[in-house]
């Protein structure tokens, strides 16, 4: 990517936007949905932004190219949208992308390098842009609550929804509406995790490596509209899963001890509460942290099944939980 010299752009504060105009805006992400397959063939992303005027604007963005949509990782990121069309939907202003739409995304933390995330190979960025990003960072630090749902596997508790940063170790199609992801983040769940049998599945990944990691690996089932994105992810990539649901599944009915309980991980269908998947680049600060965690992980000394609960031929009760809660 490279910067280009161009005439300064004019940016409209969110409280001055008007229906029927095409505007350039800056804002802090207050809510977002990672790109997902819409009812048509395009990907869609929903982004709600706010600025120093305390006015919110929800943007519905569509593209046939997943990477062309804003590369947002978390609430508090800062975005710059060029050529955003303003319309009215349900008596509220809404932004949609139109011809020539372009976006940049920046880390929202004060003091971090001002580095743009974009799929564009050429874009403009002036000293004034730098000042606008830094001013929004300072404002957001006092007015926007950072997302508190990001946890590690060692902190996962049942019956919760949270975000997980992890590395993909293996994957397989389970059926037409469910897809298996085997992931790890260098930590181990307090309860043993439930497993999907891969015996009859076409599995992609190094099973011998996964077996060596033993209970550091968890199985995640993703459903419905997330399957297409999950299928396209390459083994070894770093991911963030949003609004991941943890459930508790009873183990062997012959024992009543707490050790028989197993922790399930599900990414349900739909996009409520920002549910989705985002591939993270190796250059992301959160990936740097994850890599350090993986390098420092306490790997199992022996290859034993202790602490790992296997389901026989998958688990029908878990696979039937494709709800849209």
TrEMBL record:
Subcellular location as annotated: Chromosome, Telomere; Nucleus
Source taxon at top rank: Eukaryota
Keyword Nucleus: yes
Nucleus listed as a keyword: yes
Domain Telomeric single stranded DNA binding POT1/Cdc13: 11-141
GO molecular function, one term: single-stranded telomeric DNA binding
CDD domains assigned: hPOT1_OB1_like, hPOT1_OB2
Record-given protein name: Protection of telomeres protein 1
Protein species of origin: Mus musculus
Record gene name: Pot1a
